[in-house]
């Protein structure tokens, strides 16, 4: 079993749809949870981060962490064509300078 | 926000030659940098952790003699792919966390696409 599992998709939705992206993990030591967006042939950029369990909202994006189920989600409301990218979840056990374990990434396409 | 640059952004080399990739933190100091490799439609796989002033720590399965890492200063880490072969063709990305910061305060470079012919 991989440490982080992410449905590879791809996922295609119409503009304006609500998108739900998910990752599961097996390492209970993970405390920090992040979502990155990566455009083709570019480096990842941080979208959201959450420490431990709970929800966090930033504009159209909401990140949720359920540590009891070892499950994290990213919701995108009112999706836009510019949201078309690959989304990667990432996790780490500690806060400072620690290496990240990434999911495989899911490619999202938002159709105009 | 913090910026990390990589040079070159794209390189083609012949099999058997060596290629050096630079990773720079432009507006902050990074005692640690991470090097990742990403194959098409795959996730980022951590190769090694680069530590300023000391030896890099390599992940299991990564050949340290093939992928030489030098963290010469607080703003520069280099990855040298020695005796490159076509199977080394990949997208190489570095990241630099803010010193003393949390794990989510890591900033990624734009990546370097290596093609070995």
Describe this structure in words.
The complex is a heterodimer of chains A (112) and B (117). With 112 residues, chain A is an all-beta fold. In chain A, 0% of the residues lie in helices and 54% in strands. Chain A is built from no helices and eleven strands. Chain A has strands at 4-6, 11-14, 19-25, 32-38, 45-51, 54-58, 61-66, 71-76, 85-92, 101-102, 106-111. In chain A, the strands form two sheets. In chain A, strands 2, 4, 5, 9, 10 and 11 form a six-stranded mixed β-sheet that branches. In chain A, a hairpin with a 6-residue loop joins strand 4 (32-38) and strand 5 (45-51). The radius of gyration of chain A is 13 Å and the shape is globular. Chain B has 117 residues and is an all-beta fold. Helices cover 0% and strands 51% of the residues of chain B. Chain B has strands at residues 4-7, 10-13, 19-25, 32-38, 45-51, 57-58, 67-73, 76-81, 90-97, 106-108, 112-116. In chain B, strands 2, 4, 5, 6, 9, 10 and 11 form a seven-stranded mixed β-sheet that branches. In chain B, strands 1-3-8-7 form a four-stranded antiparallel β-sheet, with no helix packed on it. In chain B, strand 7 (67-73) and strand 8 (76-81) form a beta hairpin. The radius of gyration of chain B is 13 Å and the shape is globular. The model of chain B has no long low-confidence stretch (mean pLDDT 91). The chains are: A mainly beta (112), B mainly beta (117).
């Amino acid at each position: 079993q991989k440490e982080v599992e992410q449905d590879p998709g791809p996922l295609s939705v119409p503009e304006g749809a609500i998108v739900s992206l998910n990752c599961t993990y097996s390492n209970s030591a993970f405390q920090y949870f992040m979502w990155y967006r990566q455009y083709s042939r570019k480096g990842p950029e941080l979208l959201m981060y959450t420490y431990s369990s709970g929800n966090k909202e930033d504009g159209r994006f909401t990140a949720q962490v359920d540590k009891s189920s070892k499950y994290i989600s990213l919701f995108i409301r009112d999706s836009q064509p510019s949201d078309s990218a690959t989304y990667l979840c990432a996790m780490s056990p500690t806060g400072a300078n620690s290496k990240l374990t990434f999911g495989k990434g899911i490619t999202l396409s938002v159709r105009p | 926000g913090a910026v990390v640059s990589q040079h070159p952004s794209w390189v083609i080399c012949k099999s058997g030659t060596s290629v050096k990739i630079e990773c720079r933190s432009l507006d902050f100091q990074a005692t640690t940098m991470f090097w990742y490799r990403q194959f098409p439609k795959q996730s980022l796989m951590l190769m090694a952790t680069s530590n300023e002033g000391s030896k890099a720590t390599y992940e299991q399965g990564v050949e340290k003699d093939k992928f030489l890492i030098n963290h010469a200063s607080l703003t520069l880490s280099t990855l040298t792919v020695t005796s490159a072969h076509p199977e080394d063709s990949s997208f190489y990305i570095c990241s630099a966390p803010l010193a003393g910061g949390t794990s989510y305060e890591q900033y990624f470079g734009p990546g370097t696409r290596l093609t070995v012919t």
